[in-house]
Amino acid sequence: MDIKNSKKIRMSAERFRRFSGMTLVEIMIAITVISVAVLGAGRYRYYTALDAHKTDVQMTAARVALMLCESWRGVKGSVSYDPTSHLGDELVITSDTGPDAPDDFTALGSYSALLNGFKCYTTLSWKDIDTGLRALNVEVAWPQKGYDSDSFSDADKTLQLTVYTLN
Amino acid sequence: MLKHKSITRSGFTIMELVVATVISLIVILCVGIVLAGSHNDWNKMYSRVYDDIVTGSYNARSAFDSTIRMASRGKLILDEDDGSWLEVYYYNDSSSTSVDRYARFYESDGDLNIDYGTLNPKATLSTSTVCSNVSDCVFKATGRSAQMILTLDDGTRTACVVSSAVLNNE
After folding, report:
1. Number of domains present in the structure of chain A
2. Partner A, chain B 114-153, Cβ-Cβ below 8 Å
3. Among A137, B44, B64, B120, whose Cα sits 20 to 30 Å from the Cα of B159?
4. pLDDT, tens digit, 9 for 90 and up, residues A52-64
């Protein structure tokens, strides 16, 4: 009986020693796993917000390009077309620096367009394909990150639209 | 013997409990903050894509573009004072021998409306409301193209829609 009891006591003491806490390695592993999860979640949220912003500005830039294309086509691609004069205060178009016109196109002008607090840079150019057929090219460049940029040198994304018109 | 047993199985000390509770609280708070933040961000993202201003601006653009593009380039009438309305004319269908329909864009009580009707005699057939929350609406014309500059404002957000379309038909 005594021998049995003393064995029992020894066993529970052993158990107590064995489960008395966590080792440093265990804690380090736990911290690493948790920080990987937290960093992953943070990155995911950051890129979600960034991508939504990029989509937003790309859509705005594409709309400005389409708007200019259609307006210029409305005057049959006239070389005296001036986008700064005929639109209202909401879309402010001013002469500015812009991307280079494509090869063998003649530049009409470079402008910056400010819409809903977002600024993009555009260059209009044209080329006579045939007698009475003219190609109009609108190239838009814009900075993908941040609304606070105020310089063409920050523009890192471009888009081109070409339309044809009889003149 | 009994005394020894009660020492080895004494449970948690108050300090252990306090520390464990504090750690759990911190973890739960952190998770809660992250969840609330995600929920907020998701709501923002959703309203960026689907709120009234955005869907309204899509509707206005597509209605303007499609109506103007099917219109006849022969004639376009614009309010000469402040560009508050625009009227274009179009063929009803392929069997029409002359321009027999009109569409008139105007703003009324914060709505952008389009009246569709017959020309001879001039009578309105239907009126469709394209979008609400319009705070400002100006139409312009350049050569054979028409422009719409529309400012939408629902009290929390303002967006400006600028659209241009060429009158394509004979």
Report:
1. 1
2. 136, 138, 140, 142-147, 149, 151
3. A137
4. 889 888 998 999 9
